[in-house]
Amino acid sequence: MVTQKPSSTRGWHKNMGTLVGHVAPGFGFFVIGLWHLLNHIKLYYLQPKSYTSLPWFPTSKIRYLELFFIMGGCSMSIAMELFIGPKRHQPFDPDGTIPSNHLHNFEHSNISVTFFVYAAFSLLLDKIGPPAQYSLSQLLGAIAFGQQLLLFHFHSADHMGVEGRYHWLLQIVIFLSLLTTLIGIGYPNSFLVSFVRSLSILFQGLWLIAMGFMLWTPELIPKGCFMNLEEGHQVVRCHGNEALERAKSLVNIQFSWYLIGVTIFGVSLYLILHQIYGKKIEYESLAKYEEQEEGNYDVEAQKNSKLGESKSSVHMGKVFAPMDIER
């Protein structure tokens, strides 16, 4: 009993570390996706004819709040992966090599570094203001999503188990973020491209949060599966192929539920903001149209009155002209 308690405690800490390692970045993706979704819909309603997609959105009080949020979150993620999480508070072996159980730490930190580069250069481009700054920021975002897709596709974690199925489905959402970001460079006036990109980023966050809870919470592990400590990390394993296939099918069903939920949320938010911004803009446009019509009516009335006066004066001139000649 004395020897089992410390091991279970260590396992609990590693379990919590892995859970937080997915939930924390997932929350970041969710916040950024929701922020973009709200702002893109608002921008589209305010400027429906001249809408142009933005790679990031400034705030009134702190212009670069979104970029600071990304850089801060990436810095925390890098510190957690490379310095706080490892036992020695550094990820290398005594001989300076990378141990196999820390390969995924470097993979995750490289993703964070790429998103940090995107945010830092987006801030710098905005301060300098060169031509094509928004297109370059979009390209940097596409590179970050491409890096993320590459490292998750060739992830050092096992792709055959339940965790692997979560990662495979995550790659679909990442690919959608990458694709819409690249398309947005050539079609910056397409609201639908920005709408789908924002939803995909939000979906990434939700799926990462789901992975954190479903894979490292013992009560949520599928029936017939268990948590096994391998190379210093807790991994979900199943008793036989039947239990494994059942667990994978449950992951597929969960993903489809999340897809339906995100779709309903996105379209509902669009309709709700239409009630707020769309009708307001329609009312303002109608008021301006009525004022313009009234102004045109007044101008036409003045023109008609002046035209009538000029016609009457011309007519009177024609009447009195012979009389003047005779006189």
TrEMBL record:
Highest taxon, organism lineage: Eukaryota
Cross-referenced InterPro entries: DUF716 (IPR006904)
Xref: Pfam families: DUF716
Primary localization class, coarse: membrane
Cellular compartment(s): Membrane
Keyword Ubl conjugation included in the entry's annotation: no
Keyword Transmembrane helix among UniProt keywords: yes
Transmembrane segments: 20-41, 62-85, 105-124, 136-154, 166-187, 199-217, 255-273
Membrane association type: Multi-pass membrane protein
Assigned protein family: Belongs to the TMEM45 family.
Keyword tags: Membrane, Transmembrane, Transmembrane helix
Protein name according to UniProt: Transmembrane protein 45A
